[in-house]
Structures are given as C-alpha cells and as structure tokens.
Amino acid sequence: MIKFEKDIIIHATREKVWEAIVDEKHYQEWTTHFFEGSYYRGSWNEGSDIRFLTRDPEGKESGMFSTIVLSEYPTHILIKHLGMVTDNHVDTTSEIAREWTPSYEEYFIEKVEPNLSRFRVVAELPERYQQEILDSWDLALSALKSIAERNERIPQFPKLT
pTM value? Predict the structure, then answer.
C-alpha cells in the first residue's frame, strides 16, 4: 500500500462541502470519475457500515465494503475499507480483497475563511493502481468543488412582509 494526499480550495462553507460529499445525488456526481454509476448504500454516521458500489454489465453490485470509523460534522470523516463487494456478496479473502484491505480513506474539511474551505483527502491504495486512482481523484476533486460552489451560490432572498 502507498499513502497519498490531495487537497483543493473550495469557495463554500465546510457545511456545503460536507453536503456535497455525503448527499446521495452529489456523491453520484463527484464519484463518477472513479466508476461511472457510482453510488453508496448505508450511512455516513460514525460506526455505520457503508458500501461504495457500482453495477457490472450484468447488473450485479460490486465495489467496497467499509465502515465509518469517525464522522465529525462538518470537519472529518474516516473510512476503513474492510472488503470487496463482488457478485452482490462481501469478499474479504480473495487476492484482490486482500490487496485493497484493510485500508483507510480520510477526509478533512478545514475552514480557511468564512466562505472558503480546504478539502483534503488522505488515503491508501495498492501501488499498481496509483496513477489511475490519483488521476481519478484530480477529476473528482474538481467535480466536488463545482458541486459545493454551485450549491453555495444559491441566492438567499429576504422574506417579504
């Protein structure tokens, strides 16, 4: 396993960045750069199991089986990947599962200014997938920035009395 770190400045509050990460619709949008049709099943709550999934051409779910180790709104998420989902079943013993697990993926959302945040990911991955995953993260970070900034720019109109 190798460890990497990437970050991006986002013109949005930490709360908006958090929402862009965990909201189901937004998650599907920014993670499409890893696997088209990505989605999750489960909860982002601390201690919860979560599956990061896509469907193969035959319609079977595949992806990662994980647990949320820490979920500290709106600043920190720590994910521990425990196994692979293959053919709709959790696999912890195959060669590919042992290659990827256990591994960690950690998100930090830091306040830089009132409406400016830094999103940082620190994660582990097998060395042979390094370039592919790092390239995907570059695209995903750009998409995440766009989502959070787009949502931040929704005009707030004063209430009429």
Answer: 0.90
